[in-house]
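your task:
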Amino acid sequence: MSIEYNKQIVREFLDHFRTSNPDGLIDAMTEDATWWVSGKPHLFSSAGTKTQAEAAAMFRNMFSAYTNGLDMTIINMVGEGDSVAAEAQSQATTKSGKLYENEYFFLFKIRDGKIAVVREYTDLMHVKETFG
């Protein structure tokens, strides 16, 4: 697969956040996919490594907290081989009326046209501030 093709896979994947589409996210991942979030798992429940099934539960829980999805804007993307790095910013309104805005750095590994590995670096303190 070409680097541009892999970047398109990432663009389409991140667009599923805007439309609150957990099934689209899961369908875009390999069955053995992992999602790792920086941070200490004993301090933040979303930190650490999640299986595809655990990521699906995380997505469904997350989307239930927003009024209209999570708008994920890609700031920059670079690719090499099967890897795509993406810098992004998000914005959403929670059902409790709070504004949620965060910044991310993602490293995606693509295999056979699907997301096989995600490494996410984000501000988990802001998540905790917003959602408790």
About this structure: DSSP finds four helices and six strands in the chain. The longest strand covers residues 99-111. The helical segments are 3-18, 22-27, 52-63, 124-131.
